[in-house]
Design brief:
There is one protein chain. The chain is mainly alpha-helical. The protein has one domain (5-172): Four Helix Bundle (Hemerythrin (Met), subunit A), CATH 1.20.120. It is 58% helix and 5% strand. It contains eight helices and two strands. A two-stranded antiparallel sheet has the order 1-2. A hairpin with a 3-residue loop joins strand 1 and strand 2 (128-131). Helix 1 (5-23) packs antiparallel against helix 6 and helix 3 (42-55) runs parallel beside helix 4 (57-66). The chain starts with a helix and ends in a 17-residue tail after the last helix.
Length: 173
């Protein structure tokens, strides 16, 4: 599928509401672990998504659009959520994610991006030159990957409980 901004924003707009619907009202047995940096809980993922809204997608797009002398993105801390949001509840995080995403999408819409702007380049500290279109495409896939991560995390809670049906449950493989 070729990148289209309208199609991309369809996913980006839905993610906060989908996560709120899926996670609201669940006990912490489903949503929280203590600082497991190798197996993120839904709580950890939502914190990470907020951190991305604040320091990744729109800020990096601004670097690209500015086309300044230094187009290198600042480094990104993939684990900042473990300290940054430690004292907030999951409902608070979900509300903050919705607010931050709404703000980011409003900024994105205000740019009136053209194909020429989407082709502009910035420099990722590890990957080298990337286009704005690639950054925005990655934003969408990043959301989808973390939705998958949440669902797999939750399914694994019953990995042993499903007994012999595990062989038919691809999410547990």
């Amino acid at each position: 599928m070729k990148f289209e901004l309208d199609s991309a924003t369809e996913i980006l707009r839905q993610t906060p509401d989908m996560l709120t619907q899926m996670l609201s009202g669940l006990s912490t047995k489903w949503t929280v672990t203590k600082d497991d940096k190798t197996d993120w809980s839904p709580y950890d993922v939502v914190g990470h998504l907020i951190h991305c809204e604040e320091t990744d997608w729109i800020p990096r797009a601004e670097v690209i659009l500015a086309q300044g002398e230094d187009r290198t993105f600042p480094p990104f801390d993939r684990f900042a959520q473990f300290e940054k949001y430690r004292d907030q509840s999951l409902p608070e995080l979900l509300t903050e994610f919705k607010r931050a995403r709404t703000e980011g999408l409003a900024t994105l819409a205000a740019w009136n991006l053209t194909p020429e702007k989407l082709a502009l380049r910035g420099v990722h500290p590890d990957l080298g030159e990337v286009t704005l279109e690639q950054l925005l495409s990655t934003w969408v896939v990043h959301d989808l990957g973390h939705i998958r991560q949440i669902v797999v995390y939750m399914a694994k809670k019953y990995e042993d409980a499903v007994g012999p049906w595990k062989q038919f449950l691809s999410i547990l493989k």
